[in-house]
Amino acid sequence: MASTDGVGLAWRPAPAAQWAMVAITLVCAAVLAIALPAWATATAPPEASLEDTGRVSVGNVSLQPEQGWVLDPAATVSIKLNKADASLLAFPPSPSDQTATVAVQVAAYGFRADTTVAYQIGDVVELTTDSGLDGAYAVVLDPESATVVFAVSDGSELAQGLVTSKAATWDQVKDEAITMIGTLAFEDGDA
Amino acid sequence: MGTTQAASSGGTAGRSTGSWAVLATLVGLSVVGAVGLVDVEWFDAQVVGAAWMGIAAAVWLAFGVAMVWALVALQHYAHRSWSLILLALAWGGLAAVWLAGRAHQAIDSVITHGGGDPSWTVWGVSPPLEESLKALGIALVILVPILRRSSTLDGAFVGAVVGAGFQVVEDLAFSIPAMETAADERGTALASIVLLRGVIGVFSHVVFSALVGAAIGWFIGLRRRRTAGDVLVVVAAFATAMVLHGVTNWAATEGQIPVYLVVSLLGLTVLVVVLRRARRHEDQRLTDWASGPGRGEVSSTVVEALHGPAGRGSRRERRRALRTVARAELATLAAPSA
């Protein structure tokens, strides 16, 4: 039995060994589940957080995703939601006196300037978001895709973004995109 | 580590407070892990929908049942209590997966915030993190103790079951976002995950943990004073599992399927070699025990099957005899002390 070193014979583990393993395990669990995430939060504030209500936020902009729109985990500086071949991009607000309507007109002008593609640029539509901010959007269509450029302003800060979709699925995406734009809100600055 | 007290016949000493503390740690962290996993996956699961979540859960549950059945069927001595199996599955599938996920997310966020690319953590951070967590569970399960013995084969079995639990739950967790973004092609997305992580990866977590478990089981079961060399054996097994895990993760990420398959089979080969050697030692140990004095539970025919010249006892008879001896030995351990 020397070759087996007695391995496998009856034994009862020493309580000291059991308590030591319990202590090691609990310390490891505390470090991995509590300390490490807390350190990460302090070192690197979450780029995108998912709140209990389902709202997503990046920096100090948030919105409520519609059914089927999934937060892109790779998004670091903006909210990015995907649904099949559609995506929504919303940048955090920055200081600006520009109104949402003007901002969208400026963005739409960029499409007009590109004469290589037959863009159909819709009128700028104004709206008020659920949180009372002034918003605006315009739909830009080309033979293969649809783009919605939008902006939201509280008078001192302006947030912009866009929604893109394949032309074939635009009808399904359109209402959801506009609804989500209406849920945009500015948050207090994150830690 | 002085893990053992003097050998006893097990007897009716019952469980010490240390044993209950180990059991409470296992169960407690598994419950916390279960709650944590549901919390993490709840929103995405709602997006996927109840129907597809049910299908994915059923697929991976069937996969897990098949794996555990295979592991139990492969047992040479056929004595693995269901409480042992459930504890190992719970740790691997709930506690270890949740803790690894929490830590990995934190590390990734720090790297991303610092401007780095966190993709390397799949093969650089995940292996040591996950193998360490599984190893903790393996040691805890052995120390409960349920079998009141620890050997290379015991540890390998516990490790394999911990790995099976980890693999099944992790695979389900990966399936959820894949189905979420697939929208109208959820079935295809699920099938792809099953193929890559299930079928092709069947020899991943189970093999890695079995290797580590074999070393831990052997180390804990040593009856002599442990040396630095013994510790190195455990470290070597751990390092081997981490390297295998890291390479297979890298290969899967980079689409290097042939490398993935070769390394997975290499790991399986190493495990088979270790287990065959361990089984020969265990066979000899049981043979010696069966031929000892006072083994009234073991019939003479069993002893003859074990001691007979090559050819008298067929391989099947010998295996049956060894199982009888193993059961008799455990019955003796459980009997009141004389």
Write out key terms for the chains shown:
heterodimer, A: 191 residues, alpha+beta, nine-stranded antiparallel sheet, four-stranded antiparallel sheet, 3 helices, 29% helix, elongated, B: 338 residues, mainly alpha, 12 helices, disordered N terminus
Architecture overview:
The complex is a heterodimer of chains A (about 190) and B (about 350). Chain A has about 190 residues and is of the alpha+beta class. Chain A has helices spanning about 15-45, 100-115, 170-180; strands at about 50, 55-60, 60-65, 70, 80-85, 85-90, 95, 120, 125-130, 135-140, 145-155, 155-165, 185. In chain A, the strands form 2 sheets. In chain A, strands 4, 5, 6, 7, 8, 9, 10, 11 and 12 form a 9-stranded antiparallel beta sheet that branches. A 4-stranded antiparallel beta sheet of chain A has the order 1-2-3-13. In chain A, about 35% of the residues are buried. Chain B has helices at about 15-50, 50-75, 80-115, 120-125, 125-140, 150-180, 185-200, 205-220, 230-255, 255-290, 300-305, 315-335. The relative contact order of chain B is 0.12. At the A-B interface, α1 of A face α1, α3, α5, α6 and α8 of B.
Helix/strand order of chain B, N-terminal first = HHHHHHHHHHHH
Mean pLDDT of chain B equals 82
| Helix and strand sequence of chain A | HEEEEEEEHEEEEEHE
Report the portion of residues of chain B in β strands. under 5%
Strand content of chain A: 25-35%
Give the class of chain A from helix and strand content and strand pairing.
alpha+beta
**Low-confidence regions of chain A:** none
Number of strands of chain A: 13
Q: How would you sum up the global shape of chain A?
A: elongated
Radius of gyration of chain B over all CA atoms, rounded: 22 Å
**Secondary structure tally: strands of chain B:** 0
| Number of helical regions of chain A | 3
Distance between the termini of chain A: 63 Å
Helix content of chain B: over 70%
